[in-house]
């Protein structure tokens, strides 16, 4: 069926423009062509591996080519495995500290560099700088800085009068929080940029109006900035949660700095999955855990979308 | 002419049609190009026959730099390959994998998972069962022939299943203690203060500990190497991980609890660190020569790494301390072995290379050179040991003499005996058992868990892991 578009009446009325089917088809094809590279990439490198992992989760695949169907055995085993339960607990603690910590700090920094801070450009670049470094390098540098007795952090603490500085990466009570701190330090610049983008979308008239109404800085942040920043906040929190559960830093930093230790205190889910697969040759079991985490992540994101109607908080956005 | 002008001199205007056509051409080109590149990249491994290439993965050569870099070891491997290749036939190609990636990384496992495992590779006893139970190890018994009898039993046991050999050991690396002579002198200690028992070690470590240096170092990273370094203390008290059958746990023992407590005490007393420097506890250059610790545990080959990485550093060695005076200083003897991928098209040629390289009559001098000049690890063949003794090499090399006669307890007059009084071959375990032991060590050492409780938990985990196990027996 041909589509007819009525042009607004103009002087010397011209005939209506008709879009014929071939042209629509060409436009559709153009659209698909634009999407195709990403779709193929996601399909080949994300969707297909996910489906394969899902299939593997019902097998006893050992990484040497032997694959036997075991039904739900891997899933049953998962919840009887104290190390899986431990990794789950560690992951929840990590995400629970990482996501809010990251958001609050990134917001403070975004507010700082959004205002009239002298040297604003420098600070924006400085805050973002850690994000440009390889995570492996970040891990190695921090490990060196946090070394017991000889690390710069230990030395500074001693000079400040701390007689026995703690072992930040060697104490099971501290190691996870140290990794959280380093993760936040690494990511905060990136999230600052995201939130800064949201801040810059807020019309300046609103700040002026708040000022005229006598609102102080803190009141303006809570009554103007945060409500209008909700869509950006939603996006940042979802992204941070995904990063916390399955992001690169959740693996790379652990791999380089602690290997899941001391005493499994930093054995995040993603690292335990790696251990089971590549150190334990339990590819089927590792896949089952990966599927479980993926489903948990999908569920979490789904709930967040449902509660916030997809991040559209205001009726005008709907 | 403007860069945006066409060849006909008309201004180039970016229309949608042109853009789409160009994009399509780029896309097709990229796909075709990557396919061609893939095609170029495959089939590189060679096939069986005279023109075959044996891809040999290891962590020695060719390399320069790095924590465990020793030029002599790299050269030895390169010469080995050159000598073999000069004979004609299947050619050996050395592929270097960094040690950290080799031990804890994914490269080797990923290659096997993808069905692209190397033709040959080196593994330690700690990894043997992964690959044996994975059914990828080629039976080297026939290639080895009667030469098998020339190897010490302690070196062969962890590479043998039901009398068949699946890995040919190239060396034996007994664990010992290294110490910094300067640190000892600074603390007013002399050779007479060298500790012989666990208690003495902790006392001496306390005297060596300063605000910027630890007295002693035991591995703290949770991995198979940590287990390797802890086993001697378990054995010294009469304990073991599995029983004689190799198929049931023996871990819940007073000896296990005592060995766990020994390491726990070193941390609790503040004389041992909770974290390592450089490439881990075995990195003597980063940990001992740097002054991070005054004493450290490492295989005797650590001497070659120190001489290469810190040539001016003065160090001494002493046998592992024992629970009580007079007990045998039992130690763990690690070492790497050549293995062949059963699924390789060049398996037979690779097996022939293994036997020629490590077991043949003409390899005696080569293995003497590896032990004395390149690695400072002990020979695993009686004939090689005898040759070294006949040439007076032990008199010339105090480190090697110390390793053979003081650490392992060999009888200089009976080097053809299988008896290695203080040396026990590194045991082989499944990954589940390795993890259970690691968790016990970590819990006691770094988390303050009651050693007996940690041993009991590991015992249950090991038994659970072995309940349905049908692979090769564990242990050494």
Automatic annotation (TrEMBL), chain A:
Main location: membrane
Keyword line: Cell membrane, Membrane, Transmembrane, Transmembrane helix, Transport
Protein's membrane topology: Multi-pass membrane protein
ABC transmembrane type-1 domain location: 88-304
Subcellular location: Cell membrane
Keyword DNA repair among record annotations: no
Pfam families documented for this protein: BPD_transp_1
Protein family per UniProt: Belongs to the binding-protein-dependent transport system permease family.
Name of the molecule in the record: Sugar ABC transporter permease
Organism encoding this protein: Jiangella aurantiaca
UniProtKB/TrEMBL annotation, chain B:
Superkingdom classification of source: Bacteria
PANTHER family: ABC TRANSPORTER SUBSTRATE-BINDING PROTEIN, ARABINOSE-BINDING PROTEIN-RELATED
Name of the protein: Extracellular solute-binding protein
Annotated Pfam families: SBP_bac_1 (PF01547)
Source organism per UniProt: Jiangella aurantiaca
Upper classification of the organism: Bacteria, Bacillati, Actinomycetota, Actinomycetes, Jiangellales
